[in-house]
Design goal:
Blueprint lengths: L9 H30 L4 H5 L14 E8 L4 E9 L10 H17 L7 E2 L2 E2 L21 H5 L4 H10 L18 H15 L21
Antiparallel strand pairs: 1-2, 3-4
Helix pairs in contact: 3-6, 5-6
The structure holds heme C.
The site of heme C has 25 residues, from helix 3 and helix 5.
């Protein structure tokens, strides 16, 4: 027995397996709690007090959202700025904003946006990634979509497009009319605006390279 190598000792392997399994379990439990804390949604008080949350509360739709390069992290991060009107108002309460986002989320599921688009990493790449579509400069004051749809604001232009996409083709592929109502379109735009404020660790990767997308143009 004296010459037996540790590598052929059963007890050594049993103990190693116990320690590795124990350590991995503790690590997984810790990571689960850490992730839950990171992705839990903030609220209106956080926004008012300037507390940064990865997933801001629904009332983020009352604010201007821009992106800035974070040199330390090596990618763009969302910056919640000044108050900004959204369909004529910048005073949506937590309940009102929450109800709008809920309507948009249900609409996105009912109309299967993910069949063609990607939302937060889920979905298809037949059509543009929607994770940061709110920040696509095409909808901004210098983009083509406001004049094309005859609307003066980003949110109204987007809502108009969503209700009648086949009237405003811009890509080679056309988005079909999905029978989206005005109320649903408003919810969907709120849903997309909120999504753009989520800190996604720089996803989608090429987002910052879209001309004018960063610095809130
Ligand atoms: C059958 C495929 C399909 C479905 C389903 C679909 N879309 Fe689209 N969508 C497209 C295509 C294709 C384009 C590009 C069309 C264009 O620009 O003319 C587009 C463009 C868009 C744009 C403009 C993107 C940008 O950055 O400029 C938005 C916003 C959008 N879709 C939202 C939605 C939403 C919200 C839903 C679900 C309610 C949805 N789409 C469902 C195919 C689809």
């Amino acid at each position: 027995m004296a010459n037996k190598s540790v590598w052929s000792d059963n007890r050594f392997w049993q103990r190693s397996a116990t320690w590795v399994t124990g350590f991995a379990s503790v690590l997984l439990i810790w990571l689960t709690f850490d992730t839950s804390a990171q992705i839990s949604m903030g609220d209106d008080a956080d926004l008012k007090n300037g507390v940064t949350k990865r997933v801001p509360g629904p009332t983020v739709i009352n604010y201007k959202i821009t992106y800035e390069m974070d040199a330390k992290r090596g990618h763009e991060v969302p910056v919640i700025g000044e108050k900004e009107k959204f369909f004529g108002r910048d005073d949506y309460s937590e309940e009102e904003a929450g109800a709008l986002l809920h309507l948009g989320k249900l609409g996105s599921q009912a109309k299967n946006c993910m069949d063609c688009h990607t939302l937060l990493g889920n979905g298809a790449y037949y059509a543009p990634d929607l994770t940061k579509s709110w920040l696509d400069p095409a909808w901004g004051p210098e983009g083509s979509m406001q004049s094309m749809t005859g609307k003066d604001t980003k949110e109204e232009a987007m809502a108009e497009f969503l209700q009648h996409p086949s009237q405003y083709p811009t890509h080679a592929r056309m988005m079909p009319n999905l029978g989206i109502t005005a109320a649903e379109a408003k919810g969907l735009v709120a849903f997309l605006k909120h999504m753009s404020s989520i800190d996604t660790n720089g996803f989608p990767r090429n987002f910052g390279k879209i001309q004018g997308a960063v610095h809130g143009k």
